[in-house]
Every structure is written in C-alpha cells, then in structure tokens.
Amino acid sequence: MNEDMQLRLAGIVRRVSGKEASPDSEESLFDSGYLDSFALLDMVSGIESEFGIKIPDSDLNPRRFDSLARIGEYLSSRGV
C-alpha cells in the first residue's frame, strides 16, 4: 500500500472513530477500539466515497477491514 492510500484510509478511520490518532498499519481497528461492527458500514461508505468505488455487500466481512494494511490489500485487489 502506498503512503497516499494509507493516509487517506487513516483519515477515514479518524473521521468514523472520532479519534485524533491514526492507527498503525497492522493494528486491528476493532480490537484497538477505533471501530465496532456498527462503524464498519460508515467506514465502508467513506472508502467508497474517497476512492470512487462500490463495495458489494458480499465483501462486508469485518476481517477484510480489520486493519489499514488489509483494507489496502482489498483495495489493491479491486484495482484501486
């Protein structure tokens, strides 16, 4: 994942979580308290807006969105 993508994703997580700090790339967003299952949909909506993509409901697995690194891998697999 390039630095630009990581910064953009960290910004989305900060907006959704209401926290000022950015998570580490490999840090679990759920275990660390940045997100919960309710915030997942808000984060996915933010990702869709930020990157101009549509994430299908079938891809809404919390493990896929557990860290910035995993989200970056997912977006790269989608050609972002």
Briefly summarize what is shown.
The chain has 80 residues and is an all-alpha fold.
CATH superfamily: ACP-like
Cα distance spanning the termini: 10 Å
As residue ranges, the low-confidence spans are none
Structural class category: mainly alpha
Rg for CA atoms: 11 Å
- The number of distinct helices, counting runs of at least 4 residues, comes to 3
Amount of helix: 40-55%
Task: Tell me the domain tally.
Answer: 1
The count of β-strands is 0
CATH class category name = Mainly Alpha
Helix and strand pattern: HHH
Cα shape: globular
Q: Give the rounded overall mean pLDDT.
A: 94
Quaternary structure annotation? single chain
Strand content is under 5%
Query: What is the name of the CATH architecture?
Result: Orthogonal Bundle
Q: Remind me, CATH topology?
A: Non-ribosomal Peptide Synthetase Peptidyl Carrier Protein, Chain A
Largest sheet at a glance?
none
